[in-house]
Amino acid sequence: MNKNKRHRLLLGFTLLLYVGGFTLFYSRYVPLLKSFQIALVVPLLINFILACLKKEWGILFFVGAFPLINNLPYMFGIFETSPHAPTALVLFLAFFLGYLINQMIHPAEAESPGNPDILKPLLLYSGVIAASGIITFIKYANFTPLLSDRIYELIVNTNMVTAGGALMSVVFNSLNYLTGFLFFFILAKSLKTREFLNAALVLLSLSTFIALVFSLVQKFLSLSLGNTPHWINAQQINATFKDPNSFGVFLSSCLPLFLGLAFFGSKAMRLFSSVLIVFSLFVFPSIGSRSAFLGLITAFGLFFLLTFLKGGFVRKKGTHLAVILTIALVVIVVAAVLFRNTKLYSRLSSNVKDLRTNFSVNLLFSGKPGFWSVASRMAGSYPLTGVGIGGFIVELPNYYKLKGLPLDQTDAAENYLFQVWSELGLLGLLLVFWLFVTIIKEMRKSFSRIPRGDKSIFLLNGAIAGVVSFFVNFQFHTYIGSYEAKYMFWFLVGIIFALGRIYQKPEEEEEKNLFSIKFKIAGAILILTFASVHLWNSAHSLSLKTSTARYGLQQDFGVDKLEKTDDGREFRWTRSYGGLTLKVEKPVMEISLLASHPDIRKNPVRVKIYIVKGFFKEKKLLAELTLKYSIWEKYEFSIPEDLNQTVILLIKVSRTWNPLKTFGTPDPRNLGVAVGPIQFKDKSGP
User: Fold this and answer.
1) How far, in whole angstroms, is CA 346 from its chain's centroid?
2) Which among 142, 37, 53, 160 is positioned nearest to 90, based on CA atoms?
3) For the chain, how many structural domains are there in total?
4) Using CA atoms, how far apart are residues 211 and 219, in angstroms rounded to an integer?
5) pLDDT, tens digit (0-9, with 9 covering 90-100), for 473-513
6) What is the pTM of this model?
7) Helices (H), 388-543
8) Cβ neighbour number for residue 32 with a 10 Å cutoff
9) In which domain, by residue range, is 565 found?
10) Which regions of the chain are under pLDDT 70?
11) What's the N-to-C CA distance of the chain in angstroms?
């Protein structure tokens, strides 16, 4: 079998797996609200079709679209309280599906994105993330199907978060890293010419302009349009982004890029970039993001320094103009912040006032050190592997309980390095440092390659300053849920690598053989060791069984809150299954059940009742019942062998029904059976 045929066969297998995974992901995490779906499917189909036809078209559409669709769910009342897939992520997944099909039709040899050195940490980092994600997913699924016959909504922390929420955290966090890497890899392979780079920059500029126009609508007409209740109450605008922090980091990284574009390209592009700069500075104080403000000031300062070191024109006039403009922009930004009628000013002045009254490090960083401390404890408990990708926010309440402290809110680690350290351990942290060092080296290489007098240096300076702005923002936020922020970061890194390749001299070309046999063997051993240690931890001290015992979790899952009938009988509805933790006090258990399916006489409901012990290591079928009438019925079971043991009573229902769909009543639940009071007695009978 020749190389091209093997390559096509591998792509075909990957495509089949991806289609299955994408279908499952879409049905599980994308809201199927009809009006929302109509609005969402249009950009997804366009990006998919363009990527199928030509990968460059797909990339350009994605670059122009990803900043614009992140608040689309808010337009349909789908807020963060209803967990759903970020729209930018769904757009990328649609683009990548088209890209895979394109590669099947037009297979091409693997290409290096400029400097191949970055592929080494990216590949190892991706392997570690994938291994951690798979094992952590299996852990929160309670090692289905080895222990459980399906994924049950078991309680995973003291905040009563269930396995479904934990699994979603694992999936979304893993994709936050991996799709960013994929976007960079595809982009860096495609940014080969000035023409394509210019086209991408034009589309990014246009989408930024549209986002800024929308921000004005929020600022002057309706703050609630495309915004969430939380940020409406905070009086902060998010434009077309997930939240104000995402909008802030996007602008703080784009502004230095636009500053570079003001000296690069056609006259029309320079003029449009200048308009974007003024527009952005006008809107920026209303966003209210303090970390973005710090990142912006840092970026402008770095742009000034880089321009001073290496100007863009042979004549010094252009360099002097860039330096003067940069200083002027810093002054304007500071003045805008000092203007009293802005959200950023009110937040900064409030912080200064509080610090003068009662200075503390925790107050200085708005409570973030508490999260950093917990992240350090997690990393200390599992130094090599951490608690698993997506595990920080899940395990956070448990660690707070161990410290005996109240937990006001759950969040990411609010620092990129602490996030990685807590979830991927020392190995993940070392790979991140390797990755960042490689990016910094490429900055230096690209900076040295562009000849003095070439205007491209301004564009490079803007991209470098934008990436450094991200580095500043990463100290205070992780942007785990903000895919648009991560895609923007990798877009800027892609520009840096692209410019380095465009100006690469023939004698500087890297060898085609990127990975030696030693690297492949060492990498495989490293990932395998990481996976083995994390699997051991996940099956023991990090397991749901251990967490349940350690934190006293009450494993009542798959059941709704306690309700009462008109005559005062207490009961709880199950879904297609329900589990209740019980202490068997006497040898006979009595349970009352009710099935209220409207068609129960024609189609009886079958119910299986199990006793589960040892956290699903042992499962015993007590009875298989058939419910034919919508009346309360009592059942007794003799379980003397389980006396004085704590067990899980597991109830499985053959089918559910939905009151909202059946009768239009305001109850969207899928109801199984109602479970009344469970009592124990010494023997059967009266």
Assistant:
1) 30
2) 37
3) 2
4) 12
5) 999 999 999 999 999 999 999 999 999 888 877 666 655 56
6) 0.93
7) 392-403, 416-449, 456-473, 483-502, 517-539
8) 8
9) 557-681
10) 1-4, 108-116, 311-340, 506-514, 684-686
11) 77
